[in-house]
Amino acid sequence: MRLTGVIRAAAAGVLSVLALSAGAAFGSTRPASSSSMPYVVIKYSCPCSSAPPMAPETAAMYRLANEVSQLTKGAVNIEVFPNSSLVPQASEFEDVQKNVIQMNLSSGDEYQSEAPAGMIYQIPYLFTSYSQELKVFNSKYGQALVAMLDKKLGVHILGIQDLGARELDLNTTNHISTPADMHGIKLRMPPGTYWTALGQALGGAVTPIAFDEIYLSLQTGVIQAQDNPLPTDIADKFYEVTKQIVLTNHVIEPIAPTISDTAWNEMSPAEQNDLVKAVAQTDTWESEQVANQQVKDIKFLKHAGLKVYSPDIPAFRAPALKTFLCNGSYVNPLKQIPGLLNYALSVSGAKLPTC
User: What is the rounded CA–CA span in Å between residue 54 and residue 59?
Assistant: First the structure.
């Protein structure tokens, strides 16, 4: 919120106290503002873990907060709330739209019902690298999609960063080579039609469970498998309750720093530019961390006693592409941006399946 008028001086003192409290919990403090503009307070929420080793996306949130504070000379204060400590994961994107919180790390499944074209980056095996997604995002087609999403959703998508490829983790020992090998395995997926379709395409018996329930559910056998990128598996210690990781690489998942229209409009043009600049820098840093960490993560997981191996990727890719690219609810919305899907296919080298 923008704090204006005669209350600004008093508000500055109150915000300093609040920031010190946040710092005690999350390790960030608020510098004094030297700007002539009133303060903007941005609550930045994520379900991602802040426990060591800190997930790259969590570290990037703190990095962004520091960078924005320096660029705006303290006029814009980003308060970081990891671990779903402020609002539940399930309501996070809606809370950004309502300006209950001002920023989150969003993905297309969160606004699928309102703007299904935004799901293009979540279509399994459409992309085989983050660099392909970034190329599409930065293209005229990708930016036309961003403009459409901004208008429909009442938020500004500031960029994308790499969460890493999603892999399958299992607490069973059966070797997984094809989707048929997943038959009967209770596979945790987040709630939602997209995740159910994805889990079924991977061959699992889909069991929707919230993110913060994964560890205990694996530990107690409520589920036998889950899918997440390796940095998340390590940061949230899922490896402690699994026996193997199958490198399916089924979704190269980008997440997007997203800000509410209300918070965006409360900033001056200079502050908006500073935020966009800082997001670009931290997105690049975060994505480099994920890429550089992949080999280390696999070595760490093997040292922890897990089997880590690659399955028959084409055997997984064919049914997944058919499930999504033969489904009008995913393909038809992309036609709102003429040329978007064809450009994505040309960038990734994927082929349209025979439906």
Answer: 6
Q: How many CB atoms lie within 10 A of CB 129?
A: 15
88: left (phi over 0), alpha (psi -120 to 50) or beta: beta
Helical ranges in the chain per DSSP H: 8-26, 56-71, 92-97, 130-138, 140-153, 193-201, 214-220, 230-235, 261-266, 269-303, 313-325, 328-331, 340-348
Q: For residue 81, what are the β-bridge partners?
A: 45
Whole-prediction pTM: 0.83
> pLDDT of 140-171, one tens digit each?
999 999 999 999 999 999 999 998 899 999 99
**3-class state of residue 64 by DSSP:** helix
Tell me how far apart the alpha carbons of residues 64 and 47 are, in angstroms, rounded to a whole number: 17
Over residues 261-299, the pLDDT tens digits come to 999 999 999 999 999 999 999 999 999 998 888 889 999
Parallel, antiparallel, or unpaired: how do β-strands 225-229 and 161-170 relate?
A: antiparallel
167 touches 147 (CB < 8 A): no
User: Cα–Cα–Cα angle for 160, 29, 79, nearest 5°?
Assistant: 40
CA 263 distance to own-chain centroid = 20
